[in-house]
Amino acid sequence: MQLKIFKRGISYHKLVSWYSGLIKKNSPAPPYIHVTQIGDPILRHVAEPVATEILKTPEIQNIIACLKYTLKKYKSVGLSAPQIGSAYRICVVQFSKEHLNAYTQQEQKQKEMYELPLMVLVNPELKITNFNTVTFPEACESIKGFWSNVPRFRAVEVKAFDENGEQINFKVNGWNARIIQHEVDHLNGKLYTDIMDRKSLTCSCWQVVNERRGKITLPYFPD
User: Fold this and answer.
1) Residues belonging to the active site
2) Taking the chain, what is the end-to-end CA distance rounded to the nearest angstrom?
3) Distance (Å, rounded) from C-alpha 140 to C-alpha 144?
């Protein structure tokens, strides 16, 4: 009876695939060079401050290197250590000319967009300098395939350490203030879904899903 089922319904390749699925593959150890996804407990963990005496150690510098690499690989504007599996208060942010040019001049003006060089922020602290909130669509590498309208404070002052342990202090407004608030939220175990307009949550490729009759693959790692 089993032989009949095998001949009629199960090919050799399907059998190999089924058997392979029973074998648990070794997971890589963090820091990753991919982005963790919503549901991973680390995204709800309040990240630990980086002690000054360990900032320049190979462990911390490796986390920073992986953050930079993954940020570039995903062409993202911000990434936090929890998003690569490390529970430290470190994030990287950047809004490059390439990012800026992806928007129309009207959008740039409306959203107060301007270039922000690549910055490593260790133990960042935010002080709100403009309590007016602005709401715009926002996405996250850890919530792949979705976006939602999210309110953010218009301007903040940032106090942090850079990757060399030097203290930095600067002010940002508009879109860059949004980016940094988003990343600091990650360090506090928060996601944009906690503060979004819930009715605005949208699958970013819903139209393509319809056009292709649901036959679409959503990659979790860039080509």
Assistant:
1) 183
2) 45
3) 7
Question: For residues 163 and 94, what is the distance between their CA atoms, to the nearest angstrom?
Answer: 15
Residues 6+ apart with CB under 8 A from 16: none
CB 186 within 8 A of CB 92: no
Structure confidence at residue 61 as a pLDDT band (50, 70, 90): very high
Does the domain spanning 27-211 belong to CATH 3.30.420.40?
no
Write the CB contacts of 98 (distance below 8 Å, at least 6 apart in sequence). Answer: 75
Cis peptide before 137 (omega within 30 of 0): no
Match 């860059």 to its residue by tokens. Answer: 176
Domain boundaries, the chain: 27-211
Q: Which residues pair with 90 in a beta bridge?
A: 122
Q: Which residue has the tokens 């060079």?
A: 33
Q: What is the pTM of this model?
A: 0.88
Q: Where do we find the tokens 């990753």?
A: 32
Q: What is the pLDDT of residues 199-214, one digit of tens each?
A: 999 999 999 999 999 9
Say which residues have a Cβ less than 8 Å from residue 7's Cβ, sequence separation at least 6: none
